[in-house]
Structures are given as C-alpha cells and as structure tokens.
Amino acid sequence: MIMEDNIEDTKVKENLIEHPKKYITVWRNKWIASKAGNIDDFIKVYKNLGEMMQRWKDKGIILDPDIICTMENDYAQFCTYDEAVALQEGFERFKVEAFEEWDDEPETDVPFFEVNKYISLKLIQGETLIFVNGEQFNQCRYVLLVNLLRNEKQEEIGSIDEAQSVYNNDLENDITPEELGITKEQEFWAHSSNLQTWAENWYDSRLLHSNLAFPLLKKLTEVGDVNAKKVFKDEIGKRFVSGFFPVMAYLFKEGFMNCLTTEEFSSLLDEVDYSKLDVNKLLVNLKDFVFCDHTYRFLLRIKDEFEDYFRENPIYIDIAEYRLDESEFSPVVITPDSNYFIRGSNDGKLKEFNMITGDLERVFGSHKMAVFALAISRDGKYIASSGDSTINVWDYSTGDLIYTLSGHQDVVNCLRFDPQGGYLVSGSADNEIKAWDLISGKVKRTLGSHWGGVLSLDYSQDGSYLVSSALDTTINLWDVKKGRLISTFIDKKENIHGVAISKDNSFIVSATNSTLKIWDIKENKLSCIIRVPHDEYDFYSFVLTPDSKFIVSALQGPLEEGGALSLWRVADGKLIITLPIREGFRTYSQKLNMITISQDGVFIVGAA
C-alpha cells in the first residue's frame, strides 16, 4: 500500500450513531501482585476474581468493544449499558474525552471513512480498523513507504505483493512512519485511500497485499456484496496464473484454491506462466501446497512441466505423517487417482484415508483376523484383501463384498491384480500361487513350483509375465498366457521377500534383508547387487518407480534410530538420495513395514 501525503477528493462522513450511556471499570492484573503478600493471597484473589467475573457475565457485563486489548496490555476494560448494574458493581460513567459532560451528541473525535455500503474504516486508539457490514474485520498492519528515486525495477512490479518483494520492507524496517513525521491520522487516510482505490477498481487484488485482499474479498462475498461475488474467483485465478510464487503459495496455504471447482482449477493450470516459477523454491516450500483439494493435480502438472529437471534431479520430499490406528502388518495401497490410500487394520477392516489431509474417509470390509495382504486393481474397480487362507474381493466404489475366494490351505501372503483387471493372483504359505477369474470367482489355474511359502508377486505392466518369490530362496518368472514357468533365479544365501519386474520386461528386482539384486531376464543372470549401507539396517520393503529407472527402498535400523527411504538408480546401482523417516516413527517405536507408490510416481506411502 502506497503512502500519500495528501488525500484529495475524499468524502469524510461524520459518525451519526447515537451512543447509549455506557459505564466502565478497568481491571489491571498488576493489582493482584501488589495486593499479595504470600501464595495464599493469590489463591484467594483468583477464587474471588472468578466468582466476580461469573457474576458480571450473568448481569450482561462485557469486555468493552471499543477498546483494543493486546497481549502487551496489563489491563482490560469492562462495560455495561445498564445503570442499575453499574451502580451495583461500582462502575464509573464513561465520558467522551472531547466533552466535559455527557450530552448525547454523536462522537466526532474518531476519524471515520466509508468506502462503500459494506466497507468502512475507523481510527481507534491509533490503530486503523476495517469494518465489514459494521463488524470489525481486520487491522491495517502497515503502510509500505516507497522512495521512488531508489526504485530501479519499477516497470517489473505488477502488484503490491511484488512491490513488497522488491523493496523488502526496507523503509519499514529501518525507519518508522512516526520518525518521518507521519501521524497516525495520516496513516489512516492513506489506508482509506488505498481501500477506496481497490473498491473503485472492481476489487483488483493487485492493489492490496494478498493477505488482506483475499480474506476481505471472501468476507464481502459472505455478506452479500454482488461485485465481490462476481470477481472473487476471477481474482484467485488471475493471481495464481501470474506465477508469482509467494501469492501462489498463500492461495494454497490459506485454502482459497479450494473455492475453485476441479474444472476451474484444471483450466487455470493451462494458463500458469511456468517460466516465472522457481521449482527449487517450490520444493523447499512444498508443505504450503499440500493441504488443498487440488494438490495432486498441481503436483502432477509440475512434474510434467519440469520433466527434464526431475529426470536429472529425482526428488522425494517427506510432506506429511499421519497417526492411524494399529495395524500389525501395515498393508497399504494407493487408489489409481492418487486421492486416497487404503490400509488394512488389526480389526479386520479396510480404512480409506485422504492422501493430502490424512482424514479417514470411510471404513468397509470385514475380516475375522488382522488384514495381512491387500491389492487394488489398476482401474480402481476392485479391492482384494486377506487375513487368513481366504480372499475377499470388494467393489471399490460401494465397498460391497463381491466374492469370498477359498482354495488355499494356509495364510495368503500376497495379492496382485493383472493390469487388465480380469484376474487376481494370490500367493500363500501353502507354497501355491492361484489365478482367480474375476467374472466367475473361480480358480483358473494353480501354479505350484515353489518349495516354500510364497512371499511376493508382481505383474509386468503389459500383463504378459508374472514374477514370484518364496521362502525357498528362488524367483520364478511365469508366462501368464500359457501358464508355464519360463525361468528360475536362485539367491543362494537369503530368502527373497520382495520382487518387481521392469516396465520393458528386461529385468527383475529382488529384495532380501541385506541386499537389493537386479536380475537380467534375457541373460538369465544376476547383473547388480546393492548392499545395505549400514550393518544395523535391513531392507524391509521396496518399490520400482513406474518408469523403472529407480528403486525406492525402506531401510529400517534399530527402533531408537528409526529408518530412511533410499533412492537407488537402476542403471548403475548408485545411491542417489536418502530421506530420513520422520521423528514419529522413532517416537512410537514402530518399523516401516510396507511402502507403495502411486501409478504416476508422484506419491509414496509408507506404513508402520
């Protein structure tokens, strides 16, 4: 907001409100200390004080609305408009300082300015206050003092927010308005002029700082200002697409982007000037963007717009931690639209949480035991879960049970849907893999070549191959259409608790407690070994990114140390980045049992 020395052509209105007789008393907290000789005096005073305050409340006595109380004040002023109550409680009659006696004349010593029928300003106790529909809305915080001779970037300034950024509040920080000889009343008229200019220009948010313009616009729409209603969403959109980072972050953080529909926001994404957006600054301040209805769409667009940057600089940032209910095995899946994650719990229920807020959205499903295995189809139509030797298949949209599949002789350890969504495969401690037809709910084929319980399954992205691992230290590669075993890879030292097949079907990644291994399918041999970087840490879970260029693994150390997410490059097995697991996992002494990645590679969810 620009300070002007002289305000011309402003219309000052007298405050014509007729004031009722008011009676006041001032209570000072220093009085307590001055009257106290020992701790018993304090106890007695506070007890009596509480009783007095309750009595005042019952009689309709209130904090004086004309007095601004701050944390720095050592007093509070109470008032009543009832003369009888005032006499009973010993209140004094309030007199306007400009008059020696109460004369029922309107108060004229308070500067007042009316911008329009909804907005007005008052100067009270040296502070400029904004009122909307007669109710106090906000306090004008500061006037931006500008020395135009020092401005070498005037043409680059497109808004008050940008002006603040250019000048960096240097004049405000170095010298106060009072030191320049600017009075509080002059500040008041400067604020009044700014708000009048803003209103006369159809509430153009570039003319006020965003932290005043948007809350004020929102309030005006709520009280029925037709002009504000017309421009509110347009102003949000206009400032968002400008690409000026502080305003974009503010609109997300304060929830103003939630005022837009999905269609409106998606349209804005096409208009954003991404050339002005500093992706490094965005990543550093990512938490300002996450708690919004449109966060996922925004992050996905950023990923696409800065594809080259992320290709060279793969980034994983810990954006949130949610404290959920107990789950011994922590199976978790992400919905295809990345808006939710679903977790199997100890109570046998499936619980769906909002990806951005962590809010519990719904509970469905029912198992007699804790949920051990969980899977979701690529199209999001089906959910499969198991806590024993049976498998339940659920309609994701309704949460209704479609099938209960029986056939395994022992607990089901892992589940996977084929990419086309026609079949479900299950691996069990009974050493068998079964393929289930989702149309009939019947077993199509049983694969039984493992000599130990099946621990992990993965489908190739084109649905041609299935890979499995088991307690017999082997990895089997299956031709899905023919139902036959193609290759077997043997890890001679450890059982393999996790497997994944690459996007182009050229390699398999496997995990043991101490290593990640990459197996060349064509050459039928081990091509790379990635070892745990610390002796006390183990690989607990891993995912292969959708482009198959990176492995993200969960490393778990001693409970008091916590763990980490590590990003490894497939091409050379190099460790790219390690992201410490948040403090909460150490606080609650839990292990990160499972991680999963969204289909587009934007989100990773780890569950303990």
From TrEMBL:
Pfam families: WD40 (PF00400). PANTHER family: F-BOX AND WD REPEAT DOMAIN CONTAINING 7, WD40 REPEAT PROTEIN. PROSITE patterns: WD_REPEATS_1, WD_REPEATS_2, WD_REPEATS_REGION. It comes from marine sediment metagenome. The lineage of its organism: unclassified sequences, metagenomes, ecological metagenomes. This is Uncharacterized protein. Keywords: Repeat, WD repeat. SUPFAM superfamilies: Quinoprotein alcohol dehydrogenase-like. The keyword Repeat applies.
